[in-house]
Amino acid sequence: MKIGIIREGKTPPDKRVPFTPEQCKTILNQYPEVELFVERSPIRAFEDNTYEAAGLQMVESLDHTDIIFGVKEVNIEDLIPNKTHFFFSHTIKEQPYNRNYYKQQLKEIFNW
Fold it and tell me: What is the pLDDT of residues 36-52, one digit of tens each?
């Protein structure tokens, strides 16, 4: 299984990460069948070289991964078709900008 950590694309930018470099090392040690890839980012709380030092593969694209983790909702144009995305969103708050986002996702998922 190939898992990716996406570069956050929201404005204003969010520096949080779904997994720290140490957590990534733990995942790789406990699950040798998993490959982890980190999309390069100039704004992340942990710099790219910290992930590299932990043994992670830094990439420009997550097209080759199966599952993508992020912190904030992904811009619609940054979603990669046929991939599973895990991220946090303010769905329950019914923020106006998220309404169209989720309508679009439902259309794609259920072919509406």
Answer: 999 999 999 999 999 99
